[in-house]
UniProtKB/TrEMBL annotation:
This is Sugar ABC transporter substrate-binding protein. PROSITE patterns: PROKAR_LIPOPROTEIN, TAT. It comes from Brachybacterium ginsengisoli. It comes from the Bacteria. Residues 1-24 form the signal peptide. SUPFAM superfamilies: Periplasmic binding protein-like II. Keywords: Signal.
Length: 441
């Protein structure tokens, strides 16, 4: 059964544990269609959630109306997808087109020959390669070979705030750590959650660690970690980072029940747009979902955004960024030749078409292709989009999200210890020691 415009939406959107049986019922042979689709078609897994789900689904529909074959797309929730794609790739049952984040996970797939080297293909299609901003290729490269193609928009982590809430409590967007603690105190006094955080998802808490380590020790500390130096986890800046987390826990900075709040439900975003929280540290991708689901929160000018605060005595600059340069699409080495030809045609002509770029901007994102200045300026979200665009250009360092920069095993160890640190179950020193030895808390 081919997934058409009406049925291609989120097969696993509401139920993270839905088994491969659902896909088998649609005529594929297991999770990935036996390595990438049958006949002249290609399979493609991506993340659910608006607005990107509609944008990418529409791109598939537009491509399928042509004569270069068909692509069947299935959407998964974020956390469910990460586990499912690892299992499918390991079993040789990945979709033809694999959605990912580059970095350490891609390195693992490349070293295991589970994804294709597309360096030569890009050389043959230089016009396509040159459409993208140069900075996106680092996270797609393993040992000087490219194994993934850019997809979507740039996604720095941003400190969002509710302008109305800050105004009501007599506060402003924090520029320093002391400012941040001041917002926490004023918000709590007013009965407002200072910081909205979906801690159950773990990677959302990790975003705080990424900025805290940068602001304390500069980007060099994690650069050593990402390069494989486990001893770098014992750097004094890592312990200081953990102490800042405990400082936030002590003043009850995070929303009540943050430990059981999941990012996939968008509850953390809802706290911000319903005036129940003052601040939220999250990826730039949430701007689009807040715009789509938050009523007049965005259109009415109530959403604010700013850099992560500096820390007195720290080495990290206010303009340093963390996050994801963009998402990436790789080709499964288990896919059949016919499916790969369709997939390459889709990647070249459909996945990041001019229409996709236009749709991303309309949804409140900055696409990672060149020549978008005029379109960004003309957008109804120009203030935000141009701020993101200039932030990326001006950033002295843009550190990739840790769970993507690290190898999958190390990333899971990180997430386990991050959760325990935010629960107060381990000390900053134990966090550093556990990470240096690869011990799960």
């Amino acid at each position: 059964m081919t997934i058409d415009k009406l049925s291609r939406r989120s097969l696993l959107g509401a139920t993270a544990g839905l088994s491969a049986l659902t896909l088998a019922a649609c005529g594929t042979s297991g999770p990935g269609g036996a390595g990438g689709g049958g006949g002249d078609g290609a399979t493609y897994w991506a993340l659910s959630g608006e607005p990107n789900e509609k944008i990418y689904g529409d791109a598939v529909d537009a491509f399928n109306e042509g004569d270069q074959g068909s692509v069947e797309v299935t959407f998964f929730q974020n956390d469910a997808y990460k586990q499912k794609i690892r299992t499918a790739i390991g079993a040789g049952e990945a979709p033809t087109i694999i959605y990912g984040w580059g970095g350490g996970g891609l390195r693992t797939y490349a070293e295991e020959s589970q994804v294709l080297d597309v360096t030569s293909w890009l050389e043959e299609n230089a016009d396509y390669k040159n459409r993208f901003v140069e900075s996106v290729w680092d996270a797609a490269t393993v040992d000087d070979k490219i194994y993934a193609l850019p997809q979507g928009a740039t996604q720095p982590i941003i400190l969002f705030h509710n302008k109305k809430v800050l105004g009501d409590i007599g506060a402003e967007a924090p520029e320093t750590w002391e400012d941040l603690l001041g917002v926490v105190e004023k918000a709590k006094s007013a009965g407002i959650a200072p910081i909205s955080l979906a801690g159950q998802s773990r990677w959302t808490s990790m975003m705080w660690l990424e900025y805290l380590l940068d602001r304390v020790g500069g980007p060099e500390v994690f650069a050593r970690i990402a390069a494989g130096d486990k001893e770098a986890w014992l750097d004094d800046a890592v312990v200081a980072m953990g102490e800042k987390v405990h400082e936030l826990l002590e003043v009850q900075a995070f929303a009540d029940g943050f430990e059981s709040m999941a990012a996939d439900s968008n509850t953390d975003q809802a706290l911000l747009w319903t005036d129940q929280a003052a601040l939220m540290l999250h990826g730039g991708w949430t701007f689009g979902s807040m715009k789509a689901s938050g009523g007049e929160f965005v259109s009415g000018g109530n959403l604010g955004f700013s850099p992560f605060p500096t820390i007195d005595g720290g080495k990290g600059e206010l303009k340093n960024l963390v996050g994801n340069p963009c998402n990436y699409l790789s080709l499964s080495s288990a896919a059949e030749d016919e499916a790969l030809e369709v997939a390459k045609a889709f990647l070249k002509d459909g996945a990041m078409s001019d229409q996709v770029a236009s749709d991303l901007i309309a949804a409140g994102s900055v696409p990672v292709i060149t020549g978008q200045d005029d379109a960004l300026a003309a957008s109804e979200d120009a203030e935000y989009l141009q701020w993101v665009y200039s932030s990326i250009q001006d950033a002295p360092a843009f550190t990739q999200s840790w769970d993507q920069a690290l190898q999958p095993t190390d990333a899971e160890t990180l997430l386990v210890n991050t959760e325990q640190l935010f629960l107060g179950s381990i000390t900053p020193e134990q966090f550093a020691e556990n990470m240096s030895t690869g011990k799960g808390a």
